[in-house]
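User: Um, what's this?
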Amino acid sequence: MIEYVKANTERAWLRKQNPDLFRMHRKTEVCGLQFTSMGNHFLLDWPERQLVEMSREASTGQVEERLQAVLAAAHNGAVTYTAAISKGEQRIARMVREGGFPLVVLLNEGFPAEGSPHERYYKPGGAYFEACSKGKLLLMEPERSAFTNQVVKEATEEALRRKAETKHYSYRPIPVESQRFRFVALNEIGRVMVER
């Protein structure tokens, strides 16, 4: 607690030195999709991009192999996009961040609601705060319209159908509002952004 209070002064100074990096932007548009965002928006203009998507069932070996490939691409200038949902994705995102490489994180309900009392004072916490202050992070939360976008919705339903068939289940559509749909859709939104 004492360390947290001591760090408050430094965090306040960093926010004052880099106000644009800590300003919440509503209606950020990428590929016709709307987002709420915070961080370094210049990362969106970077020509080299890679998406990190790992199954929850990926083995430790598969995660480590993907991690090495991602770090190599990041070292060569690629900006890494991820929803950081599965343990593998989280580990890779953490290593990218700790390596000082740029990171775009897609969030599901990561920002305060528009008009809420917390909106004005929101800032990313912990390690994300430090990465944001260095211009190495962009947080993006898709608006509902992004999840219902025809291209995203079709790609998400196809991904869910493939997952069901792999496990020998018959696919039944699930609501756009469900967490499962949104988590899969975040990866499809990331794919749209990376492949643009």
Summary: The first strand starts at residue 25 and ends at 30. Strands lie at 25-30, 33-39, 49-52, 79-82, 103-106, 137-142. The helical segments are 2-17, 60-75, 87-98, 126-133, 144-148, 150-166, 179-195. The mean pLDDT is 90.
